[in-house]
Design brief:
The complex is a heterodimer of chains A (about 325) and B (about 250).
Chain A (H helix, E strand, L loop, with lengths): L1 E5 L1 E2 L2 E2 L1 H17 L3 E6 L16 E5 L9 H14 L4 E5 L2 H13 L3 E6 L10 E6 L4 E7 L4 E5 L14 E4 L10 E7 L11 E5 L10 H10 L2 E4 L1 H5 L20 E5 L5 H7 L4 E6 L12 E4 L2 H17 L1
Parallel strand pairs in A: 1-4, 1-6, 4-5, 5-11, 6-10, 7-10, 13-14, 13-15, 15-16, 16-17
Antiparallel strand pairs in A: 2-3, 8-9
Helix pairs in contact in A: 2-3, 4-7
Chain B lengths: L1 E5 L2 E3 L7 E2 L4 E2 L6 E3 L1 H17 L4 E8 L4 H10 L3 E6 L5 H15 L3 E5 L10 H9 L3 E11 L2 E8 L2 E8 L2 E5 L11 H8 L3 E5 L7 E7 L8 E2 L5 H11 L4
Parallel strand pairs in B: 1-6, 1-8, 6-7, 7-13, 8-12, 9-12
Antiparallel strand pairs in B: 2-5, 3-4, 9-10, 10-11
Helix pairs in contact in B: 2-5, 3-4
Classes of the chains: A alpha/beta (about 325), B alpha/beta (about 250).
The complex binds flavin-adenine dinucleotide and adenosine monophosphate.
Chain lengths: ~325, ~250
């Protein structure tokens, strides 16, 4: 059985988990086994809706104390539930929570794990999955040698697939281990689209000259419904908050659309965004290295081009 | 206070990525090795700051690797730390690496274990989490802020919609990223001092790898950029809609 860990925040199922479920369902189909989902904590959604993305069954450990992550507690629970259910493949989303617990769960299950996976397993000769390495600059095909396999899949690498399976929800009755941490504060970025979950991202670099010029970028992001990102020097100079920094030493993202404005395209920057499906580069220097990695390019002054692009986006929306 | 900082060596961020031996090995010719940035800039520097506040603190650096990891761990010692440990083991299997570190960690009875967010070559982001299972210790991943208050740590970590602060009693394992500290440049005194700091070499404990590398490959090259007239942003929007189908 393929068991997919369903992650939540604020009692809402993360999109990345639905993608992990779609992926798990595809593996299950290939192996001719069932795919089941595991939900810890309380969520607002009706859990039978997980059938949409393939779940044949949903296991639910309904306890409010599990709504925020405690690695030790969650690891122990997921591992013992997986053992009880005889899961042979475990799938996690490679998001903040998934990457925190999946390797620990693998250790508890004596399972081999591959994180950052971006393809379905190849089972013609063992169990081989592809992961991104060198920050997206290459792929490694890795064989998992153990009977139980754990996979953490990159966000936006597989997409959502609808199966519309009929599903039942089973409640799990299990004692919750004592907490190992105490959450004392949660600070939310209000009204913004989280970068790692975003389909569309508008990003700015040093070419925008200063924080006071970010308005044109924010207007474009708003028109598109996009999240915002930036290059490292921009966040290092505190023009933008550090959680917007993408690249080799920042966040790695793979949106459908990445629009880079006034960013040169240094190799360390590309490492964080080169898995984007479509890249648009706006830069006044036609020799900027970013154009080599781009699908669409506009050579010119961002201060003139970006407002025009925003206007065109808004116009296309109304027509 | 005893701190263990996990240090790994990675190719320089501009290294050319190529493979040899039938695409089964990373081509190391002409590659410059550096300390993995997350380990150096954040994990190690935060440990050093904690020692500056409380000089009784002892910092050990651990690396799992061959002799070629020694220049890297010496470089790390030049920034700070009291002693380095190299476990003589060359492996790309996270489980193997985590087991080696866990053995040292058990022996050393550390109050705090710092790792980086991930290595920038294999991007596994696994070692800290594995250590927590192997040592049965709490783990906080992707920390952006770390404060110590006696025997409790207050750690901020990144979540999708913002940041979350947790309090945790030592011992604890923390994986560090941007925010935890600021990058430092080693000075001459540090470099000289590092030469006389002890570097212990341990033989690896036996473990069985749970994964193996089948082969590597490179992503297909982009087909080339399509340039759009800056005066015609309607055309760009049309292409994004109709050709790329992303908006
Ligand atoms: C170990 C290491 C790790 C790193 N990690 C990262 C990382 O994770 N992420 C990251 O981003 N960087 C990282 N860097 C830094 C990276 O090497 C580059 O220095 C950085 O990405 C450059 O940022 P930038 O493109 O915003 O600025 P610049 O390189 O200064 O580029 C600005 C660009 O704006 C263009 N421009 C100027 N004016 C205009 C205008 N009016 N209209 C349009 N275009 C204009 C210019 O032509 C230029 O191409 C790292 C570096 C190292 C050494
Ligand atoms: N070979 C190694 N020796 C010591 N520490 C390591 C090694 N590999 C990884 N680490 C530590 O674990 C962190 C996460 O690495 P990884 O899980 O391999 O992405 C790194 O930032 C290091 O702090």
């Amino acid at each position: 059985m393929v068991l997919v860990y369903i992650d939540q925040a604020d009692q809402q199922i993360k999109k990345a988990s639905l993608e992990a479920l779609s992926y798990g369902a595809a593996i299950a189909q290939e192996l001719g086994i069932s795919v089941e989902a595991l939900v810890l904590g309380t969520v607002q959604e009706d859990l039978t809706s997980l059938g949409k993305y393939g779940a044949n069954k949903v296991h639910h450990l309904k306890n409010e104390s599990l709504n925020s992550l405690d690695v030790k507690v969650h690891t122990n629970l997921v591992a013992s539930i997986a053992k009880n259910l005889n899961a042979t493949v475990l799938v996690f989303a490679q998001n903040f929570n998934g990457r925190a617990i999946a390797p620990a769960v693998a250790v508890k299950l004596e399972a081999g794990i591959v994180t950052g996976v971006c393809s379905l397993p190849n089972t013609t000769n063992g169990f081989v999955v592809t992961k991104t390495v060198f920050s997206g600059k290459a792929f490694a095909h890795i064989k998992i040698e153990t009977p139980i396999k754990v996979i953490a899949i990159n966000q936006n690498s597989f997409g959502l697939v609808e199966y519309n399976a009929s599903t039942t929800v089973e409640n799990i009755d299990l004692a919750i281990p004592a907490p190992s941490i105490k959450i004392t504060k949660v600070e939310k970025i209000e009204g913004e689209i989280p970068l790692t979950e975003a389909n569309l991202v508008v990003s700015g670099g040093r070419g925008l000259k200063g924080p006071e010029n970010w308005g044109i970028l924010l207007d474009l992001a708003k028109a598109l419904g996009a999240a915002t990102a930036c290059s490292r020097p921009v966040s290092d100079s505190d023009w933008r908050p550090h959680h917007e920094h993408v690249g080799q030493t920042g966040i790695q993202i793979a949106p459908n659309l990445y629009i880079a404005i006034g960013i040169s395209g240094a190799i360390q920057h590309l490492a964080g965004v080169n898995r984007s499906k479509t890249i648009v580069v706006i830069n006044k220097d036609p020799e900027a290295p970013f154009f080599k990695a781009a699908d669409y390019g506009v050579v010119g002054d961002a201060f003139e081009i970006v407002p025009k692009l925003t206007a065109a986006v808004l116009k296309a929306k109304t027509t | 206070m005893k701190i263990l900082v996990c240090i790994s060596k990675t190719p320089d961020t501009t290294a050319k990525i190529a493979f040899v031996e039938g695409n089964t090995k990373f081509d190391e010719t002409a590659v410059q090795w550096i300390i993995n940035p997350y380990d150096e800039w954040y994990a190690l520097v935060r440990a050093i700051e904690l020692k500056e506040k409380d000089p009784a603190t002892i910092i050990h650096l651990v690396t799992v690797g061959g002799v070629d990891a020694e220049p890297i761990i010496r470089k790390a010692l030049a920034l700070g730390g009291d002693e380095a440990i190299r476990i003589d083991c060359n492996s790309n299997d996270s489980f193997t690496v985590a087991n080696q570190i866990a053995a040292v960690a058990k022996e050393g009875a550390y109050d705090l274990i710092f790792t980086g967010k991930e290595t920038i070559d294999f991007n596994s982001a696994s070692i800290g989490s594995m250590l927590s299972a192997l040592l049965d210790l709490p783990f906080i991943s992707l920390a952006t802020h770390f404060e110590l208050n006696g025997n409790t740590a207050s750690v901020k970590r990144e979540i999708e919609s913002g940041e979350e602060t947790a309090e945790v009693n030592l011992p604890v394992i923390v994986s560090c990223q941007k925010g935890v500290a600021e990058q430092r440049i080693p000075n001459m005194r540090g470099i000289m001092a590092a030469r006389s700091k002890p570097l212990k070499v341990l033989t690896a404990i036996e473990t069985k790898a749970s994964t193996s590398i089948n082969h590597f490959d490179l992503p297909p090259a982009k087909s080339g950029v399509k340039l759009i007239d800056p005066e015609n942003m309607d055309e760009l929007v049309r292409l994004l809609k109709e050709e790329a189908k992303v908006i």
